[in-house]
Design the sequence.
């Protein structure tokens, strides 16, 4: 056996060179590793857009396109029988804003019912949430019970309240007569019809807002209440100085959602009027959503109804911005 030793004169030791196959395989491994790195980077960069793309596709089809198409229809004299007729530009909007008194009557009714329904609704929901946040007996049962009106069918709710607010045999008029007052025709007067519709709305939505406030209250750290109790703060003072400031984002959310729902008030007044979109004999409780439906599908004037729909959209945005500014002003004052 030949041992490795110093080379003899004329003999050299050369390092074996890699073969051509070895160099090719290492280059292939380096190339495949580079492709994997690039694919990984591309996946991390573009896969989030791919995951959310179905939402935007559906939103464009069922959300954005109807809005743009409604705007296009509102610029035409478009009826069911005549179809698309002459391009009228902003004539529908000009008549709606400067000449149509029925629209302003519906807008006034909408704002009135919105105030009568939203303010008590959110206040009662806030108080109920604070009560359910305490250690009371059957707390779980009461927490589940408050959501029952929300999951109840609107048609069933309208039937029940239709019996309660009946003019001749309604339970509420029966109680009113017991105390010596004359019965009320709840569908004839503006204030009476507003009150009846607002009670229907409040009965359905108080429980929903209660659970939202309750979930937000349970996220408030208990250490704040314990420290306040050690300092001698009463329960009422803890509510106003700890609970309310910590709930401001949630209150803002419920105010905006209630504003959007109030400006789109439709089902309750329609069911209260027995399916009449005119909102009573003198349109005492006709909302702007009912007026839009009456113009578009009752009188079959799609162009004018689309203009009303766009005005409703603008009104909702304006009132939502006003609510945001109002809540922010209160937050800065606190």
Sequence:
């Amino acid at each position: 056996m030949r041992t490795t030793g110093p080379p003899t004169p004329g003999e050299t030791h050369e390092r074996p060179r890699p073969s051509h196959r070895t160099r090719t395989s290492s280059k292939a491994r380096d190339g495949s590793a580079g492709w994997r790195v690039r694919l990984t980077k591309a996946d991390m960069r573009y896969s989030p857009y791919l995951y959310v793309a179905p939402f935007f596709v559906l939103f464009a089809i069922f959300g954005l396109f109807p809005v743009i198409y409604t705007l296009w229809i509102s610029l035409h004299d478009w009826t069911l029988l005549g179809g698309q007729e002459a391009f009228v530009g902003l004539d529908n909007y000009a008549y709606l804003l400067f000449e149509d008194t029925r629209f302003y009557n519906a807008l006034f009714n909408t704002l009135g019912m919105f105030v009568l329904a939203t303010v008590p609704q959110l206040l009662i929901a806030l108080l109920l949430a604070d009560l359910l946040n305490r250690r009371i007996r059957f707390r779980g049962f009461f927490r589940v019970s408050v959501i029952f009106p929300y999951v109840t069918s609107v048609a069933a709710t309208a039937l029940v309240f239709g019996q309660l607010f009946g003019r001749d045999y309604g339970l509420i008029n029966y109680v009113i007569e017991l105390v010596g007052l004359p019965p009320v025709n709840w569908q004839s007067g503006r204030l009476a019809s507003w009150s009846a519709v607002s009670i229907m709305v409040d009965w359905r939505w108080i429980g929903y807002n209660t659970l939202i406030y309750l979930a937000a209250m349970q996220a408030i750290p208990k250490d704040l209440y314990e420290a306040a109790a050690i300092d001698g703060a009463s329960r009422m003072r803890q509510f106003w100085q700890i609970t309310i400031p910590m709930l401001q984002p949630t209150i803002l959310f419920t105010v905006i959602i209630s504003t959007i729902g109030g400006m789109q008030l439709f089902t309750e007044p329609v069911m209260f009027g027995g399916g009449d979109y005119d909102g009573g004999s003198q349109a005492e409780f006709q909302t702007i959503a009912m007026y839009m439906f009456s113009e578009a599908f009752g009188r079959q004037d799609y162009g004018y109804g689309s203009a009303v729909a766009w005005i409703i959209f603008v009104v909702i945005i304006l009132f939502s911005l006003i609510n945001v500014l109002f809540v922010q002003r209160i937050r800065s004052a606190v």
